[in-house]
Amino acid sequence: MPANLTPEYLEAERQFRQATTPEEQIEALQRMLALLPKHKGTEKIQADLKRKLAKLREVEQTRRVKRAGTDPYYIPRHGAGQVVVIGPANAGKSLLVSQLSGVPLEVADYPYTTQKPTPVMMPFEDLQIQLIDTPPVVGELEGPLASLIRRADETLLVLDLSSDDCLDQVVFLLESLDKRRIRLVKEARPDDPVRTFVERPAIIVGNKLDQPRADERQAVLKESLEGGPPFVAVSALLGEGLVGLRRQIFDQLGVIRVYAKPPGKEPDLERPFVLKKGATVMDLAEAVHRDFPDRLKYARVWGSAEFAGQSVGKTFLLSDRDIVELHL
Ligand SMILES: Nc1nc2c(ncn2[C@@H]2O[C@H](COP(=O)(O)OP(=O)(O)OP(=O)(O)O)[C@@H](O)[C@H]2O)c(=O)[nH]1
Ligand SMILES: [Mg+2]
Question: Long-range contacts made by residues 29-35, C-beta under 8 angstroms, separation at least 24?
Answer without folding.
Answer: 29/53, 29/56, 30/193, 31/193, 31/194, 31/195, 31/196, 33/193, 34/193, 34/194, 35/6, 35/8, 35/9, 35/194
